[in-house]
Amino acid sequence: LLQRTTRSLSLTEAGQRFYDACLRVSEDVAYAEALLHKGKTALSGRLSITAPSDFGREYVAPAIAEFTQLHPQVTPYLHLTDTVENLIEQRFDVGIRFGNLPDSSLIVKPLADNHRVLVAAPSYLQQHGTPNTPDDLHKHRCLVLEQRAELLNAWQFINQHKQQTINVSATLASSDGAVIRQWAIAGLGIAYKSIWDVKNDINAGRLHTLL
C-alpha cells in the first residue's frame, strides 16, 4: 500500500484505492450520524390524529397549534369524530378516546381520569324541573349520541353503590358530541357527557350537573 524511498513515502496505486474507499466509508458514517442526530432533534412528516369532537376542539386542536410552533416540519391532520375508528385501517398515528381500550394489540397511554356527568341548562331546568333519580329521566327530554346508526342511550349511574343503567328515549340525537353539547346549552334537553367536554360550561354556569 505504501511506496518508500530514502527521501519520501507515497501511496501505491492499490494504497490510493484503499484510501479513497476508507474516505468514502468515513463520509458515509458521518452522514449516517448526522441523520441520526437530525432524527433526535427535528421531527418531520405527516402526523394523523383522531379525537372526539368536543375534546378535540377544546384541547387537542390548541395543543397541535403549540406543537407545530415547536416542530414546523410536522404536518398534522386532525380528524374529529365521536365514532371509534380503526386506527390501522384508517391509518391514524394517534387516537384519543374516552373509556377502556377494547383492542389489546394497541398501545395505550392514559392522559387523565374521566367520568361522565348528567347536565342541563338552567333554562331547561326552570321549564321542565330537575330529575331527582335516574328513573325520572323517562319523563325528561334526553339528548342522545348516535354511533354507526346506533343510539347510545344506555346511561349508567351509581345508585347506593350499585350500578344502574337507564335506557332513555332520545328527544334529539346526533352523531356529533359537540352538537349534543350545544343543544344542552340551548336548553333543549339533558345530556350525558364526559366531564372534559362540559367542565368549562359548568364553571361558567351555562350547564348544571344533575343527580
From TrEMBL:
<keyword id="KW-0238">DNA-binding</keyword>
<protein>
    <recommendedName>
        <fullName>HTH lysR-type domain-containing protein</fullName>
    </recommendedName>
</protein>
<feature type="domain" description="HTH lysR-type">
    <location>
        <begin position="1"/>
        <end position="12"/>
    </location>
</feature>
<keyword id="KW-0804">Transcription</keyword>
<dbReference type="GO" id="GO:0003700">
    <property type="term" value="F:DNA-binding transcription factor activity"/>
</dbReference>
<dbReference type="Pfam" id="PF03466">
    <property type="entry name" value="LysR_substrate"/>
</dbReference>
<keyword id="KW-0805">Transcription regulation</keyword>
<comment type="similarity">
    <text>Belongs to the LysR transcriptional regulatory family.</text>
</comment>
<dbReference type="GO" id="GO:0003677">
    <property type="term" value="F:DNA binding"/>
</dbReference>
<dbReference type="InterPro" id="IPR000847">
    <property type="entry name" value="LysR_HTH_N"/>
</dbReference>
<dbReference type="InterPro" id="IPR005119">
    <property type="entry name" value="LysR_subst-bd"/>
</dbReference>
<dbReference type="InterPro" id="IPR058163">
    <property type="entry name" value="LysR-type_TF_proteobact-type"/>
</dbReference>
